[in-house]
Design goal:
Elements: H1 2-40, E1 45-55, E2 58-67, H2 73-87, E3 91-99, E4 121-122, E5 130-131, E6 146-150, E7 158-161, E8 168-172, E9 177-187, E10 190-196, E11 202-206, E12 210-213
Parallel strand pairs: 2-3
Antiparallel strand pairs: 1-2, 4-5, 6-9, 6-12, 7-8, 9-10, 10-11
Helix pairs in contact: 1-2
Length: 218
């Protein structure tokens, strides 16, 4: 009888713990499925890491995503609503964005034949040999500055820097048109380009916040 009582007293807590563990495992699997599906609905966005904490008010989530275009505030709000509807419980959400530049396949450059000089031997009464080189004229186009526009999806305004990652010399508004100059540098894995704003200030901004536009002729 004593052995049976001791065995029963051990089995009851273990059974309760097993049921709790099973329920939490099912809930974690459901959370991962819903978050993966909803993040995949955003074009060009990939789930990198998911951290979930359970609080008395519901779930507290920290999501890290990899994206080529900064997410707008409205997209984050829609993502939170979709996760809440999928899990049917309260969710507080924080999204960390990792920007990734996606490049097209690189095509090797076409070989350009170099200019060669043709030597012509002219026979004269004297033993002197004359060689007449025939040069080839190659025209090189002069590059012209292009126009770029600041993307409207940036939540904080970006700044104009004196050098890549250097002192700030001004702010740039969302949607502002800039003149793209010739210099382009990579600093700590981030591509910076040299631009001039409408106040004729020349500085540097990250290339990820810009996209090219075609100037309309007057």
């Amino acid at each position: 009888m004593i052995s049976a009582i001791l065995t029963l007293s051990l089995l009851v807590p273990l059974s309760l713990y097993s049921v709790k563990f099973f329920n939490e495992a099912n809930e974690n699997r459901r959370i991962n499925e819903v978050v993966n599906v909803e993040v995949a609905r955003i074009n060009g966005t990939e789930l990198v890491e998911l951290d979930v904490q359970r609080t008395p008010d519901g779930l507290s989530m920290i999501i890290t995503v990899r994206t080529g275009v900064p997410l707008q505030y409205e997209q984050v709000v829609d993502l939170q609503k979709a996760i809440v509807n999928g899990l049917q419980q309260s969710v507080s959400l924080k999204v960390n964005q990792v920007f990734a530049e996606r490049l097209d396949p690189l095509i090797p450059p076409t070989l350009t034949p170099t200019a060669q000089f043709t030597q012509t031997l002219t026979q004269t009464p004297t033993p002197t040999k004359a060689y007449t080189p025939i040069p080839t004229l190659t025209l090189t186009p002069t590059p012209t500055p292009g126009l770029v526009q600041v993307t409207s999806g940036i939540i904080p305004p970006i700044k104009l820097y004196q050098s890549p990652g250097g002192p700030v010399i001004g702010q740039i508004l969302r949607g502002q048109v800039l003149t793209l100059l010739y210099d382009r540098k990579e600093v700590n894995g981030l591509i910076w380009v040299n631009v001039m704003d409408n106040e004729r200030r020349i500085g540097w901004v990250p290339e990820i916040y810009l996209y090219p536009i075609t100037a309309t002729p007057d």
